[in-house]
Specification:
Helix content is 25%, strand content 30%. It is built from five helices and 18 strands. The strands form six sheets. Strands 4-5-6-7 form a four-stranded mixed sheet, with helices on one face. A four-stranded mixed sheet has the order 12-13-14-17, covered by helices on one side.
Length: 306
């Protein structure tokens, strides 16, 4: 009996040891996959059990996971936000993604979060140190119009667990139309924004979103896309798509032009504004304003909310 009991104890120990080893092995296959919060203000980490064994399979599996909407709908899959991954290349520790042109339709804040989710997810793989992204074969540009080069995990700083980068609160002074559409009314708007985002581009995007207060009216076609916003020598260059030329609202050309100009020159580094359409400023806006013009602050059409 003693001999049988000893044998049973040994078997129990061996089984327990095997279970522990198996559990330990399983933990090495658990990866973090980052999703974008519904508020599009941070990225959220969730665990994923890796099935693939080889590097190419692991990259493919993680990308498929990033493209799959999570069961909890309070998060968004970063690769399922209106654009497609057209090709994937893995070479010497780097993953290169080429995405479709619609990637440029993402807002500034959302684009940074999507990029961070991709980079932080893929660079967990021991053989992947860098990620690069192109848009339909062209370089990816940041909010300042600079080319986004090869990225690594360290470029996206984590705060309080999941949020990336640093958010700051800013108070913007934006100009929207009055009811008649022939004058401007100033309104304050407080926003939390990523510090690596251009305030100038944030202002333009907020104008496109339109007012949130009663008695104020939009000045820009809400379908307008912002290609770039840059500042040089006190001049803010605003590059919009052709949708800007289509005006669905009953507002004068003055109101639209100076809604943008007056809002931007509230910043200490902006004195004048020039607007272009898809990088071209040879045209006119509503047959009144040449886009070669450098617009300056105009308070003559500013009134107050009655």
């Amino acid at each position: 009996m003693k001999r049988i009991t000893a044998v049973l104890l040994v078997l129990v120990c061996l089984i327990s040891l095997a279970a522990c080893n198996e559990e330990q092995e399983d933990k090495t296959k658990i990866y973090s996959v980052y999703y974008v919060s519904n508020s599009e203000t941070k990225i959220e980490m969730h665990e994923h059990y890796m099935v693939a064994e080889d590097l190419e399979g692991q990259v493919t599996e993680l990308l498929n996971t990033l493209a799959t909407t999570p069961a909890k709908l309070e998060y968004k899959a970063p690769l399922n936000m209106g654009f497609q991954v057209q090709s994937v290349e893995i070479n010497m520790g780097k993953v290169h993604l080429d995405v479709s042109e619609s990637y440029n339709n993402l807002s500034v804040t959302t684009e940074v979060l999507v990029r961070a989710a991709i980079v932080r997810t893929l660079t967990q793989l021991s053989q992947i140190n860098f990620v690069s992204i192109t848009v339909n074969g062209n370089p990816l540009l940041d909010s300042l119009g600079n080319i986004v080069t090869t990225m690594n995990r360290d470029q996206f700083v984590e705060n309080d667990g999941n949020a990336i980068n640093t958010y700051e609160e800013v108070k913007l002074k934006l100009y929207f139309a009055n009811e008649a559409g022939d004058q401007l009314i100033a309104a304050s708007r407080t926003k939390e924004y990523l510090t690596n985002i251009s305030l100038e581009k944030l202002i333009v995007e907020e104008l496109i979103k339109g007012p949130s207060r009663e008695g104020l009216y939009p000045t820009i076609n809400p379908s307008t896309k912002v290609a770039s916003v840059t500042v040089r020598d006190g001049v803010c260059y605003v590059n919009l798509d052709e949708t800007f030329l289509t005006q669905p609202y009953t507002v004068t050309a003055d109101v639209t032009i100076y809604s943008i100009t007056n809002s931007l020159v509230e910043l200490s580094n902006v004195n004048r504004v020039q607007i272009s359409i898809n990088g071209d400023n040879s045209g006119t806006y509503r047959e009144k304003y040449s886009l070669t013009t450098y617009f300056e602050r105009n308070l003559d059409i500013v009134t107050t909310l009655e």
